[in-house]
Amino acid sequence: MIEEPHARSTTRLVNFSDAVVAIAATLLILPLVEEAGSLGDNGVAAFLGDNAQRILVFVLSFVVISRFWLVHHGIFKNIDRPSGAVVWTNSLWLLSIVFLPFPTEIIGAADSHDPVSNGLYVGTMLVTALAELALAKLAGLPLLGYAGTAVGMAVALVLAVFVPPIGLFALLVLVVTAPVVRLVRRVTAR
């Protein structure tokens, strides 16, 4: 039986989103688990050394997904009844979260300075940030912080693609977005 739009509840949508995020986070580790199954005589130390980049990108992606998930929960605390626009925007957010294990695996296996793989990875996170910005708008929240994250991701994407030696270090741009947003809030509050 298909529910009518007015019967949608925030709790159901959040629970579904939580389940999808949990699956995406789990998918991040599966390639390493599969690889570890064929350790053979090389040993754990050799495995860790050979897969250091993949492990680091796994941890980075897990942290990124966790951060997006926390922000998502904060947004949904402000939504009583999700509209169709909220449901579809949330679906875009979920699509980007589910997609992230794919570029994570590519980054883990590729040259860390490959602009296409870096662009795919950071671009996926930009889509997530833009979907969060749209959800915040639909929830009636102040947009500055969400916009700051989206702009930071956009700058990181440009750097990762057009300045290949920077690679994923371009994501460090996000470290300055929070202080910049605080500064803008102070200046505009005067």
Write up this protein:
The chain has about 190 residues and is mainly α. It has one domain. Helix content is about 75%, strand content about 0%. The chain is built from eight helices and no strands. It has helices at about 10-35, 45-50, 50-75, 85-100, 100-110, 115-140, 145-160, 175-190. It is globular and about 60 Å long. The mean pLDDT is about 90.
Q: Summarize model confidence as the mean pLDDT.
A: 91
| Intertermini distance | 54 Å
Number of helices: 8
Work out the helicity level.
over 70%
What is the secondary structure topology, with strand pairs?
Layout: H1 10-36, H2 43-50, H3 52-76, H4 84-99, H5 101-109, H6 115-138, H7 144-162, H8 173-189
Kindly summarize this structure in a few lines.
The protein contains 8 helices and no strands. The protein is mainly alpha-helical and about 190 residues long.
